[in-house]
Known about the structure:
Belongs to the ABC transporter superfamily. The protein is of the alpha/beta class.
Amino acid sequence: MPGWISPWPTKCWLPSAPLPIWILPTGDRKLRSADHRPQACRKSFGRPGGTTTTAVADFSLDIAPGEFVTILGPSGCGKTTLLRLVNGLLKPDGGSVTVGDRTPVPGPDMGFVFQSFRLIPWATAERNVGFGLELAGVEPVRRKEIVARLLDRVGLGRSASAYPAELSGGMKQRVALARALATDPSILLLDEPFASLDAQTREIMQLELLHLWSERRATALFVTHSVEEAILLADRVVVMGAAPHSLRHIVPIDLPRPRRDEVRTSPAFIALRNELTGIIRALITEDPNSPFFNRG
Length: 296
Ligand SMILES: Nc1ncnc2c1ncn2[C@@H]1O[C@H](COP(=O)(O)OP(=O)(O)OP(=O)(O)O)[C@@H](O)[C@H]1O
């Protein structure tokens, strides 16, 4: 694989192949993505005073190994909660989440970028990116090589020795992305990983991510508020809405790969952008479950 080295030495375990993700009602492995079932995966949170907020409900999806799925949806509709269900930080109240053939647990085989970066404040950018490799016992020389390569790919080759407090929001976000990629995970879960970047850097990073992903083809679940970003990256765009029906639309993206900048101006891209923008707008202003129902 040109430009990408598997981080694991021979004595350590090798990363498994990209894995499927199943988010299904308990015991139903045959359900297809577009089906809606009242008992599909759901998650609620308790509130002070005894009330509950349903963050995800009626959501069923199967994601193929190596597939890139992007998630769009209005603020607060449950996108982050969905990612946290998939990485095993949260357990569903009903239904199930299966990664490969297992209930997910956070680990080096899952790369996660949190909205809040979650960098270690007392560690340099280099140490932050290499932390998972360090935990896995990858030898220092090899670790340094992998980390240097990734920092370079995210445009932070000159900031390796900087601490998080010395980095801008966009730089921290790129450190977090490099860290998620460092263990060469078979699953990538990315929660608005480019939200803090300026428009131009964001466009560069989108293509860089596509390049890195195409070398390894991890199964990717990527949350964004940008319709263009969702289309550019995805094999399928999943549109979420507010509970009780979290899964609203699944839009296949048949644009050829590899995708380059020019694709953004193609008629097919523009048609998809218009379709998805209309869907999101309708979810915000025409959905009785939306806080902005009937506005705008
Ligand atoms: N730990 C929690 N405790 C209580 N409520 C929560 C918790 N996490 C999320 N929620 C609630 O669940 C709902 C979905 O939140 P979530 O963060 O998943 O939405 P989101 O679609 O990712 O939002 P955004 O696009 O604004 O990041 C919201 O109403 C939120 O207040």
